Amino acid sequence: MTKNNIEPVRLMANENPFGPSPKALAGINEQSQNVHCYPDWVPQTLKEKLAAKNQVPPKNIIVSAGSYELINLISRFLVNRDEEILTFDNTFIAYSLSAKRNGRKCVIAHMSGLDCNLENLISLCTNKTKVIFFANPNNPTGTIVTHDSLKNLLETVPDNVLVVVDEAYCEYVTDESYPDSRQLQKDFSNLIILRTFSKIYGLAGLRIGYGIAGEKLVKILAKNQILRSINLLGEKAAEAALDDVEYINHSASYNSKERAYLFNELKQLGFVVNESQANFQYLLFQDNEQKNNVYETLEKDGLMVCDLEIFGQEKSLRITIGQSETNQRIIDCLSQIK
Predict the structure, then answer these.
(1) What is the model's pTM?
(2) Where do the CATH 3.90.1150.10 domains begin and end in the chain?
């Protein structure tokens, strides 16, 4: 508990503030009596449901223990030791971290602003480049790469360079220029799409993600997965969550409304903010002293946000968009120091 016995609110990990859907919880409860049993070798029912949702054959789907398992598998088994991984500096740290842990060289493209300018990746692409990673929307800035930009990248880089688009926050996007990556995949077999159940589906603790890729790539990744890496509860919760379309639509709509509120109020208070397309807001400060002051003020009021210094980013915070009363608390709290 914090001051005045206020219950802390988690706003540091971009989790759905409403938690899992009722159908997902029902699926967990139903399977709770079966946790003494091993899950299937392959979560075939989940694969088929994901294939139907994404309008691809099941052979193009790989289910994973969170999208990080796939990031790690791609870095280790699709990149040779004499080849390189390419990504941005102010993006999801898992890409460079996975490269380091697997002994692969990671080339970093500098972001001059908050957008992932794919031209900066193209200019660094060499005959040693094997995989390009980027998040769309980008984590932590919340900006997007457009359909035309992604298409241009795919048309420009060689076919043997794998382009991995991490769409963990895609369900929150409202910008119509966002890529139809599945459509692009029909023309570009080197495009790999990563998705997760950790964000809008509210299943972060069960570690379920998936990838959409060509059959050959899926086979290589699946062959190198840890056996039965997908736990039973996660598998069945994900199956049920896919059926709760109304809940997902409500979460996306609610986030859009609260995201606009938080952006407008923070901007009015004089903070440097951008229009996020995800379920979080990125704040950039003049110096770390100012950032620390804001972080500590929020922390004292039980609002636990993400100091991006833990990911190597200075002078910035990331705040998960919460429920309405929480977002109001954020603004009321920050109004005291502005």
Answers:
(1) 0.96
(2) 3-19+246-335
